[in-house]
Design a protein that fits this description.
This protein has 187 residues and is an alpha/beta fold. It has one domain: P-loop containing nucleotide triphosphate hydrolases (Rossmann fold, 3-Layer(aba) Sandwich). It is 42% helix and 21% strand. It is built from seven helices and nine strands; from the N terminus they run βαβββαββαβαβααβα. The strands form two sheets. Strands 2-7-1-8-9 form a five-stranded parallel sheet, sandwiched between helices. A hairpin with a 2-residue loop joins strand 5 and strand 6. Helix 1 packs across helix 7. It starts with 6 loop residues before the first strand and ends with a helix. The relative contact order is 0.23. It binds guanosine-5'-monophosphate. The site of guanosine-5'-monophosphate (5GP) has 15 residues, from strand 5, strand 6 and helix 4.
């Protein structure tokens, strides 16, 4: 039996740079992979099914909830997002460690259900900086951006419930910290 893999949950406010950070850490060691999660939101330009997300219809998402196929799922900024359960449990059982980038609600569910998961909070250097990043990426309209900033204020209050916190002031530096945390739990 291979040693069980570790699950690293990366969370934090929308726009904080979770996906960019994960992109800098991977590809890493062969036994470390990212979980592709599912969503009902439409793909943004350049996003691909099975690479960025599994893009599902509302009906298919609902079917998977009823069939217990999600480890956790949540409504985030008006769309549904969920972590596919079989993909996670099979890989962990085969000794593959996983990085899962999800929102604060999802991270709480995983913390409650899988005490052994390593949780890492990514914080922006300031709200002003977060707002600039959200506006700069031009993927949401103004109302959506305002909603995400409002949510971030509550989300930041969750930081001390995590095993680690990284302030994403400089992306390479933050990626280095994330790598170190992962290495310290996998080597
Ligand atoms: P976006 O639409 O900007 O790609 O993602 C919105 C938020 O949903 C981000 O905070 C992202 O990390 C989170 N998210 C992505 N996949 C999942 C998931 O499977 N579960 C939960 N709870 N949140 C997710």
């Amino acid at each position: 039996m291979p040693k069980k893999g570790k699950l690293f949950v990366i969370s934090g406010p929308s726009g904080v740079g979770k996906d960019t950070l994960v992109g800098l850490v991977l590809p890493g060691p062969a036994n470390l992979e990212r979980v592709v999660t599912a969503t009902t939101r439409p793909p943004r330009p350049g996003e691909r099914d099975g690479i960025n997300y599994w893009f599902l219809t509302a009906e298919e998402f609902e079917r998977r909830i009823k069939a217990n196929e999600f480890l956790e799922w949540a409504v985030v900024h008006g769309n549904r997002y969920g972590t596919p359960a079989p993909a996670v449990s099979e890989k962990l059982a085969h000794g593959i460690s996983l990085i899962l980038a999800i929102d604060i609600q999802g991270a709480k569910s995983i913390r409650d259900e899988m005490g052994e998961a390593v949780t890492i909070f990514i914080a922006p250097p300031s709200f002003k900086e977060l707002e600039e990043r959200l506006r700069g990426r031009s993927t949401e309209c103004d109302a959506e951006i305002n909603g995400r900033i409002e949510a971030a204020e509550d989300e930041m209050a969750q930081m001390d419930k995590y095993d680690y916190a990284i302030v994403n002031t400089e992306i390479e530096q933050a990626a280095g910290e994330l790598k170190q945390i992962i290495e310290s739990h996998t080597s």
